Amino acid sequence: MGKKEVLPNVAKAGVIMMISLLASRFLGIIRDVILASSFGQNAFTDAYRFSFQIPDLLFFLIAGGALSSSFIPVFSEYLHTDREDEAWHVFSAIVCIMSAIVLTFIVVAWILAPQLTQLIAPNHPHIWNEITLMSRIVLPAQYAFFIGGILFGTLYAKQVFTVPGLGPNIYNVGIILGALLVSHLVTPSVAGMSWGALVGASIGNLLIPLFAIRHMGAKFRITFDFSHPGVKKVLKLMLPVVLGLSLPGVFALLLQYFGGLYGKEGVNSALDTANRLMQAPLGIFGQSLAIAAFPALSQFFAQKKMDLFRDQLSKTLRTTLYLAMPISAILLFLPAEIIQALLQHGNFTAADTARTAPALQMFAVGVAAWCMHPVLMRAYFSTQNTITPVVLGTITTVVFIGLSLATLRLGIDFWILPLAGSVSAILLVVMMLIGVSKIGEGIDIKGILRTLFLAALASGLTAFLLWIGVQGARSLPLLQSSLGTLALLGFGFLLFAWGYYFLTKALKMPEAAYFERALKRGKKEDPQPPAPAQPQG
Predict the structure, then answer these.
(1) Rounded to an integer, what distance in angstroms lies between the CA atom of residue 9 and that of residue 376?
(2) Could you say which of 50, 378, 410, 432 has the lowest number of CB atoms within 10 Å?
(3) Which of 167-176, 230-239, 362-371 shows the lowest mean pLDDT across its residues?
(4) What are the angstrom distances between the C-alpha of 305 and each of 156, 350, 433?
(5) Cβ atoms 404, 417 nearer than 8 A
(6) CA distances from 80 to 2, 74, 76, 304, 317 (A)
(7) Residue 113 — φ and ψ, nearest 5°?
(8) Does the global pTM surpass 0.85?
(9) CA nearest neighbour of 158 among 215, 115, 101
């Protein structure tokens, strides 16, 4: 029978990724606070936001988001069926092939940056030069993101999660240092953050993972072997994503484009700021749980252990909902207070807060859907099915574009764009749930819906009580400053979290019981993936 198979510890991996991504989002908030305080919301910050659209367009065109997602199932298939040498051969070939493709695209995009700038920001000719300059600075970072995706995927497949967790943290530290130090040496000063992004991406996403891969004994050699079945499979799995227009892949790009059509200064900055605040729970809960579960789902599918596949997917989706719903409620009830506490400093004014708050509320509507999406996407990719999620994502992209164009024609303010995105994300997740239930027959859809209902009920009630408390304290001198608001909200959020936990425990939600067991277990390791709790009643 060979060596004994060790099942992946999804719970431990989830905790590691959640802590690392929590740190990343915390650093991201610090980054945004520094950006807002130092530069406010103006034409130059709009240029900075726009400058990332060209690299993002490149990322989309080469299907960067699908690279690691198509690589991990194939690498895992060879790794967990006693063909490790072939696994490293596939790794080497994909790294070499994608390096050549990505570097070619980067050079072309760098040369055509002025023309691409006019395409992404047609109504902002006064900042075209600044957008072009900062785009060219951050474009080389895309190589680190692309190849780093393969390196991270390899580490995930080998059940190494700590090193990939460092990547986004180092990236954010780079941007922060760029704002604090480099911005005084360059023109425009906001370009210092672009230089910081380049250095942070190179160190966190490329150099450190390369060292870790080498340390674990990677067998790399230069090869462009297109003929190997594993290489063909990875490229074949990527193809639908290249040809598709999946909503999560192009949402930020389209959001900035439609925001630019309003022609108002500060709109793109407000949309991006609100989107980044919404992305915090998506990264902490949705992405961390998806990343942790992905290698396990890929391994279970490769070994034909579909019972474990179904149980793990159901458990991960319910846990995601349990954690995402209270965040959604907080953002819905207290958007202005959150923005004021975190960002209203220096050049970021009360008017900027008022502009950003409605957009954040509209993003909040779709938080649970955005958090569930990466888990569902990994479920499809782990079964080596990339066509279905991209087709569904393309459908919802068309819906989002249609809704956005309709709102522009009706003359509705820009905050409607995030609502259109939230509605489209919910539609996408519903369709993906229906589809994945056919792949893994027996997925606990009833339990998922029960968790959704009870988590929404508990989070809505506790968030409403918190809102009443905050409104009652508005007249206090403490709330006249951002620091005072931050302190009050911090205390309020602590009460909210415990209130939500005890209420869900009273409702006998299985997720609350699992959370309690995890707290009691502490550092005790469990080699088995946590079994999904059965719905009550």
Answers:
(1) 19
(2) 410
(3) 230-239
(4) 19, 55, 20
(5) yes
(6) 12, 10, 6, 12, 25
(7) -55, -40
(8) no
(9) 215
